Amino acid sequence: MSGGAGPGEISLEAIEGARPAVARIAVRTPIFVSRFLSELTGSRVVLKAENLQKTGSFKIRGASAKLAALGANAAPGIVVASAGNHAQAAALAARSAGVRCEVYMPAEASVSKAEATIGYGASVHLEGESLDDCVVLAEERARKTGLHFVHPFDDPAIVAGQGTLGLELVEDVDDLAMVIVPLGGGGLVSGIACAIDALAPGVRVVAVQAELCAPFLAKRGGHPKATVNAGSSLADGIAVKRPSGITVGLIERHVDEIVAVGENDIADAIVMLLMRSKLVSEGAGAVGAAALMAGRVTPPASGTTVVVLSGGNVDTGLLSPVIRRHETNAGRRVVLFARIPDRPGSLARLLTCLGQSGGNLVTVEHLREGYDLQVRETGVHIVLETRNREHAKAVLSEAKEAGFDVRLASQTSI
Prior knowledge:
Helix content: 40-55%
Low-confidence stretches: 223-230
CATH class of the largest domain: Alpha Beta
Structural class: alpha/beta
Largest sheet: 6 strands, mixed
CATH topology of the largest domain: Rossmann fold
Strand content: 15-25%
Strand order of the largest sheet: 1-2-10-7-8-9
Order of helices and strands: HEHEHEHEHEHEHEHEHHEHHEHEHEEHE
Oligomer: single chain
Number of domains: 3
């Protein structure tokens, strides 16, 4: 990284100046040691739990700093564009300041994020296909109504507010060596990198994007996919197609490395954080952990690596398929297809055999069409819970030994 606070820079003084406003609303989030990631990488890895922040993400830092910077100019109210987290933060900050807040979110935005934003008192418009569309709509609304447009990342006050997280890392982690930060529009990693560059320039800052939307890597010639529908990635909170403004220059000057992780990597990280650390993280918040698990980032052997969990606002409807996928991959959820005679008692005998083997029946479905079945034969689609991969193999083997024509469905393996 390079130091200095020239044109386009966010100074340490600006970040320190944002701190009182941030402290009035936000909390100083805890840091937890991740034994799993530490053992996996052979380095000391800790988690900065911004998923436990007010409104569920780091965004409240920038929003509170921006409202304070506006002062009396915020009186007419504010209008914002957001995939969800900036919306909630702006709504809470506006409510705390006693001003009106309108929000534009993509039509396919997270249901839980939209409802939470309304709960903070904002008026929500679900329009457009992406965050870029919403920015255009919000700016137009500002011109027509006199509301003050608050950009989700391209604003010095926003970046300075996010930079207060970097101050906390330097103060709370004595042997800080590396910080791994999610990268969408770049406000968070820019603020953190500026703070760290000023206070601890030897610390390495790594930014992580989702492979489905990695415009910064594309800009650097490292990745071909620069645009995507924001709703197509688990990390929808960082699916910013065309970042611009001050964060681009700040990232180029202050961030040491940018990497990207795939959707399966993100899903694995969400489950790991839930199971091993008992922390609920949205996809965007989990990309740093995903980068370590997938080997995209190698932490230093000495010192402490901090993974910033930027947010925890995930729809429960998304958690279920992510967990089911993990259970299937771990051999604890098995999908079977069996051919049985189409006469009374056949299904009962098969299910009895599976039950005696210790399999727990989740669902069973008769399939008489769409398969190459004989006239007096029926197919059965069965989902079982098993203890582990070896148990799943034993259940399948015992069913075959009992004379049943049963096999793994094509989408599962043990």
